[in-house]
Structures are given as structure tokens and as C-alpha cells.
Give the backbone structure.
Amino acid sequence: MHDNPRPADLRWHLEDLDFTAIDTVRLRKRDDLFLLVCSASFIESGTDTYTRNLVDYFSGDAEVGDWLSQHWEPEELQHGLALKTYIEHVWPDFDWDGAYADFFTEYSKLCTTDELEPTRGQEMVARCIVEMGTTTYYQALNAVCDEPVLRDLTWRIRTDEVQHYKHFYHYFLKYREQEGLHRPKVIAALWRRVAELRQSDADIALRHAAAWRFRGRAQPPSIDAVSKQIYELMSTQYPIELAVRMALKPLLLGARMQRWAERPLAAVARRVLLN
């Protein structure tokens, strides 16, 4: 992980957060919040590896390449650094660097160009789904926690992720025209990425965060029990309507058709994803 992301026109800085104001004693035994924050910090901190693949994939497109390397990557790395700093203030005995090294050994094997979509337009669709996932994750985390500094941090990150979504969507529209990308291929890209949401890098991050958090305990909880606990916590506040709205947008259905589709799809998604 880079402790000092490359300079960029960041919307906020680490110094804007008052980590000394955290009521650490009250939070220290909250395994659920720890795992949610720690797993997110791992994923955000590995962004530079993934960025290289995207920059290579979009080689020749200076607009996309410059934005990825000069804005998206530094902002994502700042998310990771801020979340790591939060961990260090609340759970100072946790060996974040050691746990992250284990996580990255496994995670980096997934960061290959083979995992990218077959066309640039379809990859932008996939990027929109990823940003939808992060936006809704941080919104849910913001809602389930009651610690002011973490709420401030998660909302800042959530706001960044919305902006990232807008950029990827803008680039999707450009490549849609260039490639003549019709709706069936957009749907295929959407489906592939949505299908991975519950079997993704988040699972790897959670597994390694839990393994290091509970090592040495006489009766550590199983990863299934841990996953169930935090999944149930997050599902109580997960903004499923927002997720569906963001996922449908690349289909360019038109305002009336999108509104017609959102409610039944949200109901289905709530049953499938949140149960």
C-alpha cells in the first residue's frame, strides 16, 4: 500500500478527520464494525494493482488513462489509508500490515487482465456495477454505525464513489457509441458483474481480516458465522432501491421505463441478495 497517494485534486484530505475524537473504548469490542472497516481498507488499499490493468486496457485513451491514474487511484488509496488509520486508532494491537500482506497475496492473483470484459464499453459497464457496490456498501455502513468520525469518513468515501460512478458512466456512453454497443451486450456485462458481487474480493478481504482478528482466541467464530453476522447487520440498512437504479442506468431505458422496472427488480433483489 502507498502511505502517500500521488497528489491529486482530492475532495478531502486525511487531516480533515479528527481521529482523536473517537470513543475507542466503546468500539474496541465491536468485532462486526472492525471486520466491515478492515475488509474495506484491504480492498481500497489494493487499488494501485488493479489500476495498472485498467490503464493498460485503455491504452491510447488519454482521457480515461489520466483520470484513472491521477484521480481515481489516489482517491481510492486515500480511502484505504483513512480506513487503516481508523483501525490503528481504535484497534492499535491489530497487525494491519501483516493481515494485509496475507490478503494481498491471494487478492493480487485475481487482478489480471483476463478478468476484464471483452470490450472497453462492457468494461465500463462493469466499472459502474463495482462503483454501485461500493457506494451502497459505504451508505449502509454509514447507517449502521453510530460513531461520528466513522460516519463522517464513510459518507466522504460514499460521495467519492458516486462521483467515480458518474465518470465511468460517462466513459461508457462514449464507448457505447464507438463500439455500437447494443443492449444485449450491456445486459451480459451487467449480469456477469452482478453475479460476482456475493463471491468477490470482499470475501477474501473478510476472511483474512477475520483470521487475523480472531487468531489466538480459544474459540474463534467460524467464517460462516462471521459472514452471517455482518451480512445481517448491513442488510438492515442496505439501499437496495439505489443499487437497482444505478445498475439499470447503463441500459438507457428512458425515465418512464426505468421507473416501471425499478420497483419489481428491487423486490426481487431484496429477496435474492438480502435473504
Summary: The chain has a mean pLDDT of 91. The domain at 25-273 is CATH 1.10.620.20 (Ribonucleotide Reductase, subunit A). The CA atoms of residues 17 and 152 lie 8 Å apart.
